[in-house]
Amino acid sequence: MFLRMEKRALRLLVPLLALLVLGADSPSVEWKSTARWKTGLVKSVMAVDTGTSLDVEELCQYPELPNGCEATSLAAVLRFLGYDVTALELVYGYIPSEPITYSEDGMIACGPDPAEAYAGWPEEGYTGFYCFAGPVVQAANQYLAEQNSGWRAVDITGASALDLMRRLDEGTPVIVWATLNMDTRLFSSFHWTLPSGEEYYPFSNLHCMVLTGYEGDTFTLMDPIEGTVTVDREQFMSRYWTTGERAVAFGEDSQ
Predict the structure, then answer these.
(1) Which of 4-8, 35-39, 47-51, 127-131 has the highest mean pLDDT?
(2) Which of 29, 45, 67, 140 might form a disulfide with 153, Cβ 3.0–4.6 angstroms?
(3) Architecture of domain 20-252
(4) Can you give the pTM of this predicted structure?
């Protein structure tokens, strides 16, 4: 983690404008639709009269982790499962991360695929980005294995609204990715080169939260910035779909 100190001088060379366009909690080459999202039209989500509400502790990512919504969301779920762990423990000991590095002139950046590792440092406001489901699953399962737990995390990216509700009905919250404040998906003008050689333009308003319940046509989430929030289910699903339908569920024996 101390690599960031060695890179700080180079980071200062990055144009200020590029840094300012990065949103809090904001990387994949443009996500390819799975056909649920077509030309801006959202498929209607069936309203459900019954509901489920899980008592997930509210955890705030601030002030320690201004870009640490993934670690904070994971900590909240692990604590729900009965484990006394903090987001900082997960950042420093479990979630794989790699720095964004720069050329000598500070103009060319290289970084990891967020499907493989957290890009940057979640404790830093402008040099922290995000990761997707894979690193969260890896961190969760490493931690759970060390506790000799029967619980396991599983990547359920692509899950439908009914799939997510079924997980809640079974008694476990789900980590999900959408956007800050359920706003329209945005991309940053800043970009970096992936190990594959592709240029990657990160989301500028991606956000990771915990889905804790549903009732009628709403979803309830534990937002690491706002606390417990209730949102329109179709609005949530539209943001979830356009950011890649990314989700992590928990079960015993990987169920």
Answers:
(1) 127-131
(2) 140
(3) Alpha-Beta Complex (3.90)
(4) 0.83
Q: How many residues does the chain have?
A: 255
pLDDT of 10 higher than 70: no
Whose CA is closest to 79, among 9, 138, 151, 7?
151
Domain ranges of the chain: 20-252
Q: Which tokens is 191 given?
A: 């970009």
Q: 197, 180 in Cβ contact below 8 A?
A: no
Q: Which residues contact 202 (CB under 8 A, 6 or more apart)?
A: 22, 26, 27, 114, 119, 129, 130, 187, 188, 190, 191, 192
**122: which 2 tokens?**
């979640």
Question: What is d(CA 190, CA 14) in angstroms, rounded to the nearest whole number?
Answer: 10
Strand segments, DSSP code E, in the chain are 37-38, 41-42, 48-53, 97-98, 101-102, 109-110, 118-119, 151-155, 174-179, 192-193, 199-200, 206-216, 218-223, 227-232, 247-252
- Enter the DSSP assignment of 153: E
Give pLDDT tens digits for 77-120.
Answer: 999 999 999 999 999 999 999 999 999 888 889 999 999 999 99
pLDDT digits (tens, 9 = 90+) for 16-60: 334 334 444 543 333 333 322 222 223 334 444 489 999 999 999
Number of other residues whose CB lies within 10 A of the CB of residue 111: 22
Assess contact for 224 and 130: CB atoms under 8 A.
no
